[in-house]
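Module 6 notes. Inverse folding takes a fixed backbone as the condition and produces residue identities as the prediction. Think of it as a translation problem where the source language is geometry and the target language is the twenty amino acids. Below is one complete input and output pair. Work through it position by position during the lab.
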């Protein structure tokens, strides 16, 4: 649709697909939180309760890429001032496996 608006009306747009964005004002509970906030909340609850178990959805082998909000804003600025016309992924190339992180935290 963005391409058609550019071709038909000369309206230039940018489309970015954000990786898991996190930061200080992000939701941390209620079912709408992103993975970084949810995992932090679960770890804190496990530590406080003394029950050092958390639930991770899926097999635990999935990987995710995370991006801090400041980096996201910088990326948006760079994309908006670029000549990129096609959709672009905005995030880190570093992939994190949550089960590896959880094991490191427990030990």
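Target side of the pair, the amino acids:
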């Amino acid at each position: 649709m963005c391409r058609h608006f550019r071709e038909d009306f000369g309206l230039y747009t940018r489309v970015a697909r954000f990786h898991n964005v996190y930061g200080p004002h992000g939701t941390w509970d209620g079912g709408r939180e992103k993975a970084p906030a949810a995992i932090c909340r679960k770890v804190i609850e496990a530590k406080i309760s003394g029950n050092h178990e958390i639930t991770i959805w899926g097999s635990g082998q999935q990987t995710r890429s995370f991006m801090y909000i400041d980096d996201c804003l910088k990326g948006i600025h760079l994309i908006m001032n670029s000549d990129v016309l096609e959709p672009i992924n905005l995030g880190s190339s570093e992939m994190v496996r949550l089960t590896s992180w959880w094991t490191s935290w427990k030990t």
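Reference fact for the lab report: The chain is about 40% helix and 15% strand.
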